[in-house]
Write a structure and sequence with these properties.
The protein has one domain (about 1-110): STAS domain (Transcription Regulator spoIIAA), CATH 3.30.750.24. About 45% of the residues lie in helices and about 30% in strands. The chain is built from five helices and six strands; from the N terminus they run ββαββαβααβα. A hairpin with a 2-residue loop joins strand 1 and strand 2. Helix 1 (about 25-35) packs parallel to helix 2. It starts with a strand and ends with a helix.
Length: about 110
């Protein structure tokens, strides 16, 4: 899994590519933990993720809990329809804020 980061002001945008599953989840989790040390507000750009397994969902849940404990948040952006179905069926669409694109997710932090 390739993971790119960029900053938009004080917001860390994390953009992984590939699948988020038991094999790649630990790598993304480690990446999130490193970023949470400095950046409490993050956006996960899922535009290049085409599959999320239950292991991937656990990474998202752990990360959003950690971010919120530090008075921050994790928001999702650019989620494709297949991944949206997984988030909906699992109830994660009620736990995480989901935006159509990264720009909307960034703007939501200033509201």
């Amino acid at each position: 899994m390739e993971i790119k980061n960029r900053m938009e002001g004080t917001i860390c945008i994390v953009a992984p590519a590939g699948q988020l599953d038991a094999l790649t989840g630990p790598l993304l989790n480690q990446h999130f933990q490193e970023q949470l040390g400095e950046n409490h507000n993050m956006i996960l750009d899922l535009s290049s993720i085409d599959f999320v397994s239950s292991a991937g969902l656990r990474v998202l849940l752990g990360t959003v809990k950690d971010a919120r404990r530090k008075s921050g948040d994790l928001r999702l952006a650019a989620v494709n329809s297949d991944v949206k179905k997984v988030l909906s069926v699992s109830g994660f669409d009620r736990l995480l804020k989901i935006y159509d694109d990264v720009e909307s997710a960034c703007e939501s932090y200033s509201e």
